[in-house]
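Students often ask why inverse folding is considered easier than folding. One informal answer: many sequences map to the same fold, so there is more than one right answer. In these notes we will look at a single instance of the problem. The structure comes first.
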């Protein structure tokens, strides 16, 4: 009987030993908790998840929802502490508010925002500062940063940016920092604004080869004749370009997107290293973004889209507006010293001759690079930021004349 008892003991003990071992997993060596995906989502790390919002301005552990003052105080008066007392902030006219001021090493991984004034989002300027720098690495109006530059809701479903009903801005760009991160919003408007926001980040070790995220806004309300629009210039350092957003308003009738987008890399001067074949081609479309019937087709995909088409006041006339994005996430454009990006504005003359256009073009360029970065050009003034779209008046019908014959 003893052999049978011994076998029985082994059968009973071994499973329990296995269970005990499963309850004390070991951390995967070297994983810092960043850049997660379905393939590594199961890996453990010592990273610390934190979040900043009006319910926890500092992101401190165990301090969310502890506010006693805030925009929801009146609504929560019958419920007390912890019941949505501070869900948003009021930012006075012509003032700057610090949304986040983080100390330590880590990365911002998700940002959600919604404003009380969707139509005024070019008057609200976001700025990001890494590692106590005095010049911002990101300086972009709120709506344009989230690829929604015309002050109207535009649904976007992409990997880097999502814009959801009713006016919810989300971004998932990874934004590493080594010493600190500061995020501000300037209200250029003459009226107070209300902002709801949440900035989710992780405190952890950042790899030595991780570059810093940058974004820059530009706009030319009327492109001078026979010139190109500059999306980005003056970049100095090593990095890679990861995205373009264009807000384009036509100032002439007919098709407007024959122009090529060009990337000048590491000393290119007269000719670029990368030259596309047309504006709609760069954004992943073709043949005027239509199916041959003269109607634009919007689309939003993980890496590219024509997400927004806004009509002019009357009919198919000059003044139509477009919002397009192209994320170079699977195909970043790498540079070692410098980078310049331009786009031509071209339509057609009779006889299949190119027509240089004088359109209204705004852009946001997104890239990673080493610091320090070159100082950005001065941000446009309020009057230029908010130049109104072209207004088309309905033509007056010609007066009828009697036939006297």
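Output (designed amino acids):
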């Amino acid at each position: 009987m003893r052999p049978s008892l011994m076998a029985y003991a082994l059968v009973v003990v071994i499973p329990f030993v296995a269970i005990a071992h499963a309850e004390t997993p070991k951390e995967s060596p070297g994983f810092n908790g960043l850049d997660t995906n379905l393939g590594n989502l199961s890996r453990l790390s010592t990273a610390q998840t934190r979040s900043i919002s009006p319910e926890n301005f500092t992101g401190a552990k165990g301090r969310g929802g502890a506010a006693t003052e805030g925009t929801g105080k009146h609504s929560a008066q019958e419920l007390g502490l912890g019941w949505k007392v501070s869900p948003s902030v009021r930012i006075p006219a012509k003032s700057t508010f610090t949304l986040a001021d983080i100390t330590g090493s880590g990365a911002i991984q998700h940002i959600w925002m919604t404003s009380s004034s969707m139509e005024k989002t070019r008057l609200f300027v976001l700025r990001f500062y890494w590692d106590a720098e005095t010049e911002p690495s990101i300086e972009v109006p709120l709506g344009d940063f989230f690829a929604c530059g015309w002050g109207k809701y535009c649904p976007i479903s992409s990997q880097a940016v999502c814009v959801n009903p009713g006016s919810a801005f989300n971004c998932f760009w990874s934004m590493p920092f080594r010493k600190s991160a500061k995020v501000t919003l300037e209200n250029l408007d003459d009226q107070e604004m209300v902002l709801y926001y949440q900035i989710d980040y992780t405190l952890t070790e950042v790899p030595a080869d991780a570059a810093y995220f940058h974004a820059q806004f530009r706009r030319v309300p009327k492109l001078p004749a026979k010139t190109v629009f500059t999306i980005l210039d003056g970049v100095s350092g090593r990095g890679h370009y990861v995205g373009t957003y264009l807000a384009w308003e036509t100032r002439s009738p007919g098709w407007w997107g024959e122009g090529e987008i060009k990337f000048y890399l590491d000393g290119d001067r007269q000719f670029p290293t990368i030259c596309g074949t047309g504006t709609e081609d760069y954004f992943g479309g073709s043949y005027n973004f239509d199916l041959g019937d003269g109607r634009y087709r919007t689309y939003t995909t993980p890496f590219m889209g024509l997400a927004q088409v806004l009509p002019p006041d009357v009919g198919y006339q000059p003044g139509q507006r477009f919002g397009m994005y192209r994320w170079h996430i699977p195909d970043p454009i790498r540079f070692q010293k410098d980078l310049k990006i331009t786009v031509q504005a071209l339509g057609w003359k009779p006889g299949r001759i190119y027509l240089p256009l004088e359109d209204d073009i705004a852009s946001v360029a997104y890239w990673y690079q080493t610091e320090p970065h070159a100082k950005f050009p001065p941000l446009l003034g309020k009057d230029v930021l908010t130049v109104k779209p072209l207004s088309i008046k309905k033509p007056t019908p010609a007066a009828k004349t009697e036939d006297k014959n």
